[in-house]
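Before drawing any conclusions, I looked closely at one protein's amino acid sequence and its C-alpha cells, quoted below without any editing.
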Amino acid sequence: GRASMEVLQFDTVRGETVYHVVFVIRGRAIFYSMNDSLSSWFSVRDLSSRRFIQDNEENGRPRYRRYEIHPAQGFFVRNDQDTSATVSEPLDDASFFYFARTLPLEVGRSYDFPRYFIPDRNPVTLRVLSRDTIDTPAGRFATIAVRPIFKSRGLFSQGGQATIWFSDDAVRIPVRI
C-alpha cells in the first residue's frame, strides 16, 4: 500500500489558528482493500484537536464521520448529531503523529497518553521499537521506529503491527509507515 501525510495549510476553526493535515492510506491484499483518509485540524498553540474527519472505505464499505471537538468546553459532536464528553487537550488519530514528534522517544520505552478525544479509547500507547537506517525513494534515512496502539479499529488498532519510522533527528519527519 501507500500512505501520505501532508500539512495543507494554516486555517482557523472557531477563532483558533490550526494546522490542517490530511493523512491518506491506500492498500490492497488478496482479500482486503482500504482507502482511508483522515483530515485533522489541530491547534498551532497546543496541538489539541478542533475538527477531525474520517472518510474510510474498507472492502467496499464506506464510512464517514465528522467530529467537531471543543476542548475548552469538554465535548465533541459527531456528524452534527451526537454530543459526548472529551478529555482535556484532546488528540485525534492524525494529530497524535504530530504530538509524537515532540517526545524524547527512547528505544525500548512505551508511553501511554490519556489524550485520545474519545475517552473510552484511552490510553493511546506509543512503543518505541528501534533505531534503523532505511532506504526510501527519497533517499536513505536514520530513523526511529514507533508503534502507535489505539483502542479502536483500523491500521493502528490493538493487535495491529503498523509502525511509523520517524527521522532520527530534531524534526522527526515521518519517513515510512
